[in-house]
Design a protein that fits this description.
The complex is a heterodimer of chains A (about 180) and B (about 290). With about 180 residues, chain A is mainly α. Chain A has helices at about 1-25, 40-50, 60-75, 80-95, 105-130, 135-175. In chain B, the strands form 2 sheets. A 6-stranded antiparallel beta barrel of chain B has the order 1-2-5-4-3-12. The chains are: A mainly alpha (about 180), B alpha+beta (about 290).
């Protein structure tokens, strides 16, 4: 059951991403600010930091699966999320050894990871030709609103799940 | 340790190759999705539909309460308009009858305006805002096909880009690129209509870009003119409202002019949409859409 719990939560978050735009107040979802929600990725960061041990790669495996799902269901351009999610999570996995995992560090790491995936997405979609924006405009209109929106989501998520994730990791280590 | 590094480098390179291959594959002009993709879309669509129900319910209730405030004034205004409409309805009926008779004489069976509506609800909107795309809960089983126009009651919003058996993806008109231009007409009451193309979307101005075909004269376009879709491109039926001309500016060389069109449909308040099924002779599509139209 516990094995299924994390993918289930990820799947629910994934489905909620599709209706996220309707949960925002209409004035915020106007064209000028491009708020992209990365709720699945936020939870993957928590899994990577709080649940994965040095030897397990759950976050990366889930990253590949849910990246592929996002590609198929939401963008139609295969491979982009499927590559970017696990790659960023792998970098996180390496960097994790040097870092503590208190709430401030989690926020800073999340902002940084979000920046990495947003920039990667920006480059991939620029090359593909769906985006015609300068980097400055991207940063101003897309990255900053996106970051704020996702951090607002991350904090309650951290509060709700951090304890459980740590507990599951402890059980993993004891086994 | 060095073995581990080599291995991860190998996986990274493999990943990049896979990325390029997959992106390349999905950007080719493919007509149909692969079977696994259809399967994933359908099974996720089923869950999305369930999740969407309570959310739509709540947001509809909130809008209802908001609208309640204006009911009194609206009612007054509408009553005035209603009395005007009575004469219009009579005129329209006469005109329709005449049109039918004339068509019979001319031996035209169906006009470019006729279509079969497939009513569907929106079950998801892409969280990746660079890809303006919604998912609807009607698919090939219900007669939806690629490239059909999609509209709301206010006007055209996009076209069907991919179909799976019970869901379909709709590319919104703001996400159209050079390859997906829409042929459109500026509707003029007394003079000839002006033909042109919706070339794309200006993100800064939040308006569609409309250019005029060479034969027509852009000088005749005025602000406030209605832009409707046209049958000339072969994809869409005639007369779906797209928007209103809001601004006319000369292009950078001063030779031609570009008009900016404000969309008449609100793309952030999509709930029920109508897929415009034009294949009236197609028996399959007819049956399925007939059921849903009710």
């Amino acid at each position: 059951m516990k094995r299924l719990l994390l993918p289930l939560i990820l799947f629910i978050l994934f489905v909620m991403e599709g209706v996220a735009i309707y949960l925002l107040p209409p004035s915020l979802s106007s064209e000028h600010m491009l708020i992209a929600v990365h709720w699945v990725f936020m939870f993957l960061i928590l899994i990577s930091l709080l649940y994965d041990t040095e030897e397990t790669f759950f976050a990366i495996i889930y990253g590949i699966c849910f990246g592929l799902l996002t590609d198929v269901v939401y963008t139609g351009v295969l491979g982009v999320y499927m590559f970017i999610y696990p790659m960023t999570l792998y970098l996180l996995h390496i960097a994790k050894r040097l870092l503590q995992t208190n709430v401030y560090m989690v926020i800073i790491i999340s902002i940084f990871s979000l920046f990495v995936i947003e920039v990667l997405l920006f480059f991939v979609f620029s090359i593909v030709g769906t985006v015609q924006l300068t980097f400055y405009n991207f940063f101003l209109y897309r990255f900053i609103p996106t970051m704020i929106a996702n951090m607002i989501f991350l904090l309650p998520l951290y509060g709700l799940t951090a304890g459980k994730l740590r507990q599951y990791r402890q059980e993993q280590l004891e086994r | 340790m060095s073995f581990f590094r080599k291995k991860s480098l190998f996986i990274l390179l493999l990943g990049i190759i896979l990325l390029v291959l997959l992106v390349g594959y999905s950007l080719t002009d493919r007509d149909d999705l692969t079977t696994p993709e259809k399967f994933l879309m359908d099974s996720v669509g089923w869950v999305q539909y369930i999740v969407n129900q309570p959310i739509t319910y709540v947001s509809e209730k909130i809008t209802d309460v908001k609208e309640m405030k204006h009911t009194y004034e609206e009612n007054k205004l509408l009553r005035e308009k209603l009395s005007e409409y009575k004469t219009v309805v009579y005129d329209l009926q006469e005109a329709e009858k005449e049109n039918e008779e004339l068509q019979q004489i001319m031996d035209i069976e169906e006009s470019a305006r006729d279509f079969e509506p497939i009513v569907s609800s929106v079950i998801a909107r892409s969280p990746e805002r660079w890809i303006d795309q919604i998912t609807i809960n009607r698919g090939s089983r219900h007669g939806v096909e690629k490239n059909m126009a999609v509209m709301t009651a206010d006007g055209m919003i996009g076209k069907v880009s991919f179909v799976s058996p019970s869901t379909a993806k709709v590319q919104l008109i703001t996400g159209f690129d050079q390859l997906n231009r829409v042929s459109a007409t500026v509707f003029k009451k007394d003079k000839d209509n002006i033909f042109g193309l919706i070339e794309g979307y200006d993100t800064d101005k939040e308006k569609l870009i409309f250019t005029v075909l060479e034969e027509s004269d852009i000088g005749e376009i005025e602000e406030g003119d209605l832009v409707v879709s046209s049958n000339l491109g072969g994809l869409f039926p005639d007369g779906l409202p797209i928007g209103e001309i809001e601004e006319i500016v000369p292009d950078q060389y001063g030779l031609t002019q570009t008009a900016y069109v404000k969309l008449s449909a609100d793309l952030f308040d999509l709930n029920k949409v109508i897929v415009v099924n034009r294949n009236l002779d197609d028996a399959d599509g007819d049956e399925a859409s007939g059921e849903d139209g009710e």
